[in-house]
């Protein structure tokens, strides 16, 4: 037996506890490494394909018009082919799907969905669709990190944390924003803050950033923007800008969901074909609106005073993003929202630039537009603020960004009742993402953490043997009986029942026990025992389901809930 197989059970038991551990931190960094490798391969494939026909990556204005309109049509056809090969039922993709899997399936990601996301995302981004690379990055990161946990058969509560590590590393590797990646995972994906979760996710994000920087360098797209400090008289105008960002975020989310509902009954192939046709038509006329956010940044920098061009790019990018994501093209929403926000911010900077007679503040307003639109669209104000701080490398942007983000967020929530685009999609797709208070507590504790070995096991005993064993039993010790059944064998919990003895029947009560895998959490135990609120379950390892390794009693579940949140 290999050495790692000897210490693996103790590692599994350690990680079943919801507490910070060196082992989990190391595994989180390994998960970050796996995620970063996948993202690097993903990004290199996109760059390699684009450089076949583009002079500069993500700038589709550099390709001839007669070729440009063919790219999205060919891309849509190839994406549809991949979906057909892997199976259409495996086409649920993107951050909403990852949030659903994190909450309901502990972050484990199906392989076929991941293949769809990897190859479909490469083709979509390489062929000019207005989608972001962070959607596939989140999916690939969760898959890479959670696969390590699945291979080691770790408790599901720790696999969920590893999936969060992979997501953070994926976002960090995509945008070179390690801190914003951590905040995004805690604020949007996990939607909670726990120190034992935060630390490994933070380390994973660091690994993702370092590995990616070793390949692509320590640069980001916003390095093109010239971010200058702005004086206090801009602040009232920034409030108005925040209101505009909140309103545009509402329009974006509303129309995205309108398109999703309108075409929900269309076959996937037809939806992709329509997305390709719209992108081909708009891209033929407005090539600057194609691709992710980089092209929009380039033109915001080089033409900050060209109102007609910026307005055309803004309208074109809104249309392309809505149709691409609304019709199911694989990709993320964050990248396009960055691009739209940058162009919109640059447009709004024209008024103060005209007053000052100086357009040097255009870059500052572009970054503020990105932050405000991200905060209002995704309901991620803190992640948006941290992203701005990391991407801008300028502390002078913090106060204006806080004002714009707060105004945009409040405008969207208070006046438009705008919800996060991710939650809107999850609600429409009927993919659960909320947990009951009890499950929320119990999912964080693996069954190995509370494994009870205080029991006596009898193999196919007769009644006198059971009675004799019960007489000698010392609480809280339990008596288990193993008997043959039609399916092979079953375990029963034997105990005295006074009511039965008074009727003259046998004084022994037998409660059938259900088994749970050693990777299960206390939430699965609660689901089994909740109705009767008594009894126990037995725990087994997947390699040998017939051999129990311990039990979990109902009173242990009850004690955990009372101790954590007084939920019972």
Automatic annotation (TrEMBL):
<keyword id="KW-1133">Transmembrane helix</keyword>
<feature type="transmembrane region" description="Helical">
    <location>
        <begin position="21"/>
        <end position="49"/>
    </location>
</feature>
<feature type="transmembrane region" description="Helical">
    <location>
        <begin position="307"/>
        <end position="327"/>
    </location>
</feature>
<keyword id="KW-0868">Chloride</keyword>
<feature type="transmembrane region" description="Helical">
    <location>
        <begin position="161"/>
        <end position="185"/>
    </location>
</feature>
<feature type="transmembrane region" description="Helical">
    <location>
        <begin position="197"/>
        <end position="216"/>
    </location>
</feature>
<feature type="transmembrane region" description="Helical">
    <location>
        <begin position="361"/>
        <end position="385"/>
    </location>
</feature>
<feature type="transmembrane region" description="Helical">
    <location>
        <begin position="69"/>
        <end position="91"/>
    </location>
</feature>
<keyword id="KW-0406">Ion transport</keyword>
<feature type="transmembrane region" description="Helical">
    <location>
        <begin position="334"/>
        <end position="355"/>
    </location>
</feature>
<keyword id="KW-0869">Chloride channel</keyword>
<keyword id="KW-0407">Ion channel</keyword>
<protein>
    <submittedName>
        <fullName>Chloride channel protein</fullName>
    </submittedName>
</protein>
<feature type="transmembrane region" description="Helical">
    <location>
        <begin position="236"/>
        <end position="256"/>
    </location>
</feature>
<keyword id="KW-0812">Transmembrane</keyword>
<keyword id="KW-0472">Membrane</keyword>
<feature type="transmembrane region" description="Helical">
    <location>
        <begin position="268"/>
        <end position="287"/>
    </location>
</feature>
<dbReference type="InterPro" id="IPR014743">
    <property type="entry name" value="Cl-channel_core"/>
</dbReference>
<feature type="transmembrane region" description="Helical">
    <location>
        <begin position="112"/>
        <end position="131"/>
    </location>
</feature>
<dbReference type="InterPro" id="IPR050368">
    <property type="entry name" value="ClC-type_chloride_channel"/>
</dbReference>
<keyword id="KW-0813">Transport</keyword>
<feature type="transmembrane region" description="Helical">
    <location>
        <begin position="397"/>
        <end position="416"/>
    </location>
</feature>
<dbReference type="Pfam" id="PF00654">
    <property type="entry name" value="Voltage_CLC"/>
</dbReference>
<dbReference type="InterPro" id="IPR001807">
    <property type="entry name" value="ClC"/>
</dbReference>
